[in-house]
Amino acid sequence: MCGICGFNWADEHLIEQMKATLLHRGPDDHGTHVEAGISLGHRRLSIVDLSDSGRQPLSNEDGTVWITFNGEIYNHAELRTRLEQKGHVFRSRTDTESIVHAYEEYGLEFVKHLTGMFALAIWDAPRRRLVLARDRLGLKPLYYSLDSNGPSGNAVRFASEIKALLVDPRVPREVNRQGLFDLMGYEFVPAPDTLFKGIQKLLPGCLLVVEPHGGARISRYWKLERRDVAPTEQELLDLLERACADHTMSDVPLGAFLSGGIDSSTVVSFLSQSMPTQLRTFALGYREASFSEFAYARRVADHFQTQHTELLVRPVDAAAIERSVWHLDEPTTDPSNLPFMLICEEARRYVKVCLSGDGGDEILMGYDRFRASKASAALERIPLPFRNHIYRAIVAHLPDDDHKKGARNVLKRFLQGALLPGAGEHIRWQYFMDPTQARELFEPQVLHSLDLDPFAPVKRWSRQAPLERGPREQYVELNTVLPDSVLMKVDKMSMACGLEVRPPFLDHRVVEFCYSLPTERKLHGFTTKWLLKRGMNDRLPPGIATRAKQGFSIPMKNWIRGELLELTRDEVFSSRLIAGNFQKKTLERYWREHQERRHNHAHLFWTLLNLSLWDRLLLSGPRPSPATFPSGVARNPTPAPSYAASNT
Questions:
Q1: Which of 34, 58, 119, 568 allows an S-S link to 142, with CB 3.0 to 4.6 Å?
Q2: Do 207 and 254 share a domain, yes or no?
Q3: Do 123 and 232 sit in the same domain of this protein?
Q4: 173, exposed or middle or buried, with CB in 10 Å at 0-12, 13-18, 19+?
């Protein structure tokens, strides 16, 4: 796992500056390759083949093909054998070298031969060709800019993180207002856009190829498709067991995150059987009992006899929030970002690689929003005007509850999502701004320049999806929320600590199998993850496979009314970015409603707090460099944690 960067001209000083902003992603080593027409940079986090032969950028035998690569290729040994049989000569044990020879052998089809997570750049000197590629599901991020602001005209810049691109003073720092509008609803900016105008994300499963006479072209080498599968729990468990075994490829210590939910418990169950030493597990909890899962994680840890560490998270301070904003590059305001960063900090004290249960909810329809969509479909026989009148009347009279869920909060959230247009699919219940709020929140001159269809990004994907509701909603989920929010959190928060996180549920073979299952094998009635629960029920401690999903979030609504009240208020109401785009009177009214517990506006104010900090740190502040890192960000060891840790 590493950080990569580069551009299509020679400038050794600039590439070194870009590399410096990625130090946290690769504290073990670094390298540069500069020649006419290309500059490649690399920061290394050594996981496989710790010797100098694994240094990057790495080339083929005659130095005509170079690569800078971030990720892991789990089938590299098998791929290496095939390539050696075809006459390719290897100099190291790294998975990186297998990619170089695969490109030599298969050309642009090389990427179809890779199983793993990756973002990479290949420079083909004889063809003067630059190839950028991102893995099928988007586990590793890759940003780029295409413009005419290069030394020799058309410029192509790329990096694992946006801040590396911002080092070049020719890259403008301007807010993308359409992205700002989308962020307020989705908690992320849907790809390919970012919150920076002119900087884009390469979509998962895509190649970007730049050639002297062909310009820049993007092509898709993989997409989700349904196929015939054996829809049995044993088939699913066999695939997951193989994926967990593949994901243990490492020459450094390895552990696992454990929440006590079925996904992370499944991963721990397979690892505990195959690991040669006692598995280390890490759990996170809170003082607020309705948000904490310690008891469930302990039961699983005791059952599988892991070496277990617990972290009790206290309300975080401004420094921790600044660190998360800095590392995210652009706000993705899922409240689980912060606790995930904290548990990564603790895990990094013991291991360099952690496996996680991320992806299980997406591939097996585990989120409440899938159930809400199914329930709402049954209510659509009620005429829309009458239904909306009833819903709005109920929502207006339901005060907020301090607990995480509870019947009142669940009902209110269900009704709020059901009021939104059906074109939003199940994402309606993950969207946090209705059209009335948008008109109230944004300044009129801002709204005039925007596409105000809240679900335009959803429609772009649903139009490509199957007609049936279940597969269509999963297709949207796996192409939007998963890569642009969940996996950005996993990558950015773990790499902030120099920790590699691997999610076996997102092995593309597992994903393809689950996507092809009949919907009833995933959402059976209103039981989510039905097939996995059947398969794991006897393998896990009693009650773990069937307990309700709790989620990996934090009591943000309570903290904004308490420990984070002053910080949030001061940042939101003093920010020039917020003042220039949002209506102050509306924000003041929403603030009163939240503090008086009439409504829960935590998502709004958490997003605005992140925006204010993002503006100061990355948009309007000094251009990124090691000297501008927020306190504690740039170097290991990690800063003092906002939690108490204990081993059990």
A1: 119
A2: no
A3: no
A4: middle
Are residues 125 and 259 both part of a single domain? no
DSSP assigned state of 381: T
Task: For residue 233, give the H/E element and its range.
Answer: helix 233-246
Q: What is the CATH number of the domain that holds 239?
A: 3.40.50.620
Q: In the sheet that 38-44 helps form, which strands lie side by side, from edge to edge?
A: 29-35, 38-44, 2-7, 153-159, 143-150, 200-201
Instruction: Tell me the average confidence (pLDDT) per consecutive run of 10 residues in the chain, 648 residues long.
Output: 92 96 90 97 77 83 96 95 95 93 98 98 97 98 92 90 96 96 97 98 98 90 94 96 92 90 97 88 78 86 95 81 95 89 91 95 96 87 72 66 63 81 93 91 95 96 93 98 97 94 97 97 96 97 87 76 94 97 97 91 95 95 69 38 51
Q: How far apart are CA 292 and CA 290, in angstroms?
A: 6
- In this prediction, residue 254 carries a pLDDT of 92
Pair 228, 216 in one domain: no
One domain, residues 620 and 645: yes
Q: Are 153 and 91 in contact, with CB atoms under 8 Å apart?
A: no
Q: Give the model's pLDDT for residue 646.
A: 57
Could you tell me if 216 and 228 lie in one domain?
no
The tokens describing 69, both together, are: 């690569």
Same domain, 441 and 586: yes
CA 180 from centre of chain: 18
Q: Is 2 a catalytic residue?
A: yes
Domain residue limits at 99: 2-174+192-220
| Number of domains into which the chain is organized | 2
525 shares its domain with 385? yes
Catalytic residue among 2, 5, 244, 344: 2
Q: Which residues pair with 308 in a beta bridge?
A: 281
Give the pLDDT of residue 580: 96
Query: 129 lies in a domain?
Result: yes
pTM, two decimal places? 0.93
Q: Is residue 486 part of a domain?
A: yes
CA angle 55, 57, 58 (to 5 degrees): 75
Tokens of 297: 């994680």
Residues 1/72, Cβ–Cβ less than 8 Å: yes
pLDDT at res. 421: 87
